[in-house]
Amino acid sequence: MPKLPFICANWKMYKTVGEAVQYVAAFRGLVRDLDGVEIVLAPAFTALHAAAEAARGSNIGIAAQDLHWEREGAYTGEVSGAMAREAGASYAIIGHSERRTLFADTDATVNRKIAAAFAAGLGPIACIGETLDQRERQETFDVLDRQIKLGFDGLTGDQIGRMVIAYEPVWAIGTGQNATPAQAAAAHGHIRRRLRQWFGEEAAGRCRIIYGGSVKPDNIRDLASQPDVDGALVGGASLDVRSFLEIVKAAAGGGAAI
Ligand code: PEP
């Protein structure tokens, strides 16, 4: 089934409110006529609302970078899916490897956060991927299986079909060393097979599986043209309007497996 390529900028802990608004103001006119790609920006929580307002009426969507699984409560420092939705997000990144490594996210919390995202009306962008050690021990597919089994436990086929899964090999994030197109294709093919096996043909066919890890203007075409690669999650190269624009244009130009 043809799928619209999905390109999401993960701004991490970069960009103040003013910087985020300035970016969106410059970017929205540049992508106005691009309709072969879904474009999403994930600002820090502080800039979520302002970025969403700046993007209003454009073809740019907004994602939160995380959420808490409860709707509200005594959870100092946390932000719920309902809050992110009200601030203007339509997606939420969940289980990014930086959250797993630095902030104790686990497959179990990822599972709760995905359910909370759906309950709040947000589309989850769920991140999975192996570390370098795990790859060198040839455990990549086992790690992905575990993350899918535990992280997506209890989800319906319909929910899987509406999710975006980001395959992000941890060793490729922020290192400048992207997975080769063949490595990405092998991992994405494996994820798609498991989705088919565990959630059904339709869910597997509809779910967009995007690649993340040192995506740049000069490697997006090769990566996005691989079978089962439906777009990209972009960190460093999304911080600059021009380089992110090049990536988005390449994906819209039919680079992704659509
Ligand atoms: C990310 O943070 O999701 C990411 C892929 O970062 P980078 O593009 O900088 O590797």
What labels would you give this structure?
TIM Barrel; 8 strands; globular; binds phosphoenolpyruvate
Tell me about this structure.
It is built from twelve helices and eight strands. 47% of the residues lie in helices and 15% in strands. The protein starts with 5 loop residues before the first strand and ends with a helix. The protein has helices at residues 17-30, 45-55, 81-87, 97-102, 107-120, 132-136, 140-151, 157-162, 181-199, 201-206, 220-224, 241-255; strands at 6-10, 38-42, 60-64, 91-94, 123-128, 164-167, 208-212, 231-234. It is an alpha/beta fold and 258 residues long. The mean pLDDT is 96. It has a single domain (6-252), classed as Alpha-Beta Barrel (TIM Barrel). The protein has an eight-stranded parallel beta barrel, surrounded by six helices. The radius of gyration is 17 Å and the shape is globular. α5 (107-120) packs across α7 and α7 (140-151) packs parallel to α9. The structure holds phosphoenolpyruvate. Residues 10, 168, 173-174, 212-215, 233-237 line the site of phosphoenolpyruvate.
